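Run log // design_07
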């Protein structure tokens, strides 16, 4: 049981480090003339992720499950998502953020996984929220938070895309890219 808590703690620490980096990037973007869109919506994102980890810890604490071999499948998918996360975040560099920060006139990043789809980081987040609980057979957390995440992300993506279309070359760069399904069309 201790190994489960340590694994979850490592993921939480990773998220805290990401928030620190995101805040640093947000300050940099604002100094360049960037502005935040959907400030109130961001609170929902934060609450979703905090409650996700609380729910996961509670569920793994109260269930009495034994290790099952098929848990290796969501573990592998989760670990692949972590590699994708690093690729997506490093591709965006200083433009990566947990908030919607728009820098008017900036050229949007279309390298790394962004050359294949518009929102690779959101695909990764969806994968993580679905797979992390499945590793530990926390089915309720997986189901409930996958649904809540889909609702929250559907609003966030519309807000983000509208802001980027208004202030950047987003529409031109991503006009032939699908949101979540990779395409071979690249416009760098």
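design_07 sequence
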């Amino acid at each position: 049981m201790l190994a489960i808590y340590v694994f979850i703690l490592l993921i939480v620490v990773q998220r805290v480090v990401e928030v620190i980096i995101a805040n640093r990037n947000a300050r940099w973007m604002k100094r360049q003339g960037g502005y935040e869109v959907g400030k109130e919506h961001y609170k929902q994102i934060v609450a979703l992720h905090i409650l996700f980890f609380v729910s996961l810890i509670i569920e793994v604490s109260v269930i009495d499950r034994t290790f099952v071999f098929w848990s290796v499948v969501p573990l592998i998918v989760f670990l692949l998502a972590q590699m994708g996360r690093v690729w997506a975040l490093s591709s965006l560099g200083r433009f990566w953020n947990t908030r919607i920060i728009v820098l008017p006139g900036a050229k949007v990043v279309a390298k790394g996984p962004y050359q294949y789809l518009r929102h690779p980081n959101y695909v990764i987040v969806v994968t993580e929220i679905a797979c992390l609980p499945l590793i530990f057979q926390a089915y309720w957390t997986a189901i409930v938070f996958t649904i809540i995440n889909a609702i929250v992300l559907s609003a966030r993506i519309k807000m983000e895309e509208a802001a980027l279309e208004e202030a950047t070359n987003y529409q031109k760069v991503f006009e032939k890219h699908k949101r979540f399904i990779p395409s071979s069309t690249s416009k760098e």
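The longest helix spans residues 2-31.
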